[in-house]
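Input sequence (94 aa), recorded before submission:
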Amino acid sequence: MCAKETSFRVQAQQASVEMIADLLLTAEREVASFYEAIEKKYGPEEARKAACDWIEEVETMNWPAEGTIPNWRHVSIVAVDCLASRVIERPPNL
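Predicted structure, token format:
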């Protein structure tokens, strides 16, 4: 009985590790695409800052239930909003 329970736990842990690895892989692809798009338009310095904003948003987000993919689009939108705040000149508040 103990061997079956241990086997189940090991399988569950392996599934969790595989799921985390898949999430990290998709996150890496997303931030790389995001960086590349920003770099083409605004240069490497803004791309680096935008990628940092992207990563900071990932660190603060609520992760979805097991088996679902996080909303990377939301992460990118938040990071682009930060970028826009840096690159768009705003008129002084009147």
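Checked by second reader. The helical segments are 2-42, 44-60, 72-87.
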